[in-house]
Fold this protein.
Amino acid sequence: MSASPRVAVVTGASSGFGAATAEALARRGFEVVLGARRTDRLRAVAEPLGALWAPLDVTDPASVEAFCAPLERVDVLVNNAGNAFGAESVAEAVEAKWRDMFELNVLGVLRMTRALLPRLVASGDGLIVNVGSIAGFETYPGGAGYTASKHALRALTRTLRLELLGQPVRVTEIAPGLAETEFSLVRHDGDKVRAAKVYEGMQPLVAADVAEAIAWVATRPSHVGIDEMVIRPRDQATAMLVHRRPAT
Ligand code: NDP
Ligand code: 8X3
């Protein structure tokens, strides 16, 4: 008799890293449960994988509760939903954007983790993967709202690992550098020219690069914890130091 598949919840699965992670985990035999706000996009990701999906807004406690309540078994939680809003300097910071980033990138992770932790513990072999960023331990001009939120997420992740010592749940932070997804388009409010400039003259990561790392973490033997993984393009040494080739 074969064991029933492990269940992995992926937030922000309608695009980018989340969609690619859904695919990578499904390919490795996980039963994946996907959440995001854009349900048309979510359905398009889920259906070819035979995955379960439901609307999820991690900034809304009622939505988190409705998404999590029907889940009987959860082995893996990938807290991936997140975004940056704007690139204003501290002097010109827009408080509403900072609030939105903290609601999404920090409190969203807190809500999902709190809701699913009992089921992760009950699985006997739980794993939480928080998608942080190099912005969790670096800073750059115009990035303070986002980097502050990812620094906070990093603190949450590290604290959780301490608090869960002795429980059957591992905690991992995945910290990517520049990756071409919808991230920059969202950050720059749909401005395609500005978003494209972020990757000009360099080769960024693609979503599958990060998804493969998450899938690798999720398939280590249960006694092996991967605390953190920094993944950058070869063309990027730090958040601010990027090798760009001149246009030919
Ligand atoms: P995308 O913009 O492509 O994906 C973001 C995902 O988050 C979407 O699926 C979006 O779905 C979802 N999301 C946004 N708001 C909410 C919400 N309130 N509730 C639920 N889901 C939400 O960007 P990425 O794939 O690049 O980003 C994924 C993660 O990776 C983020 O945490 C980001 O900070 C991080 N990251 C990205 C890097 C990059 O360079 N791309 C580098 C390092 C880290 P929907 O709008 O349908 O809700
Ligand atoms: C996204 C990477 O460098 O734009 O998390 O902050 S960066």
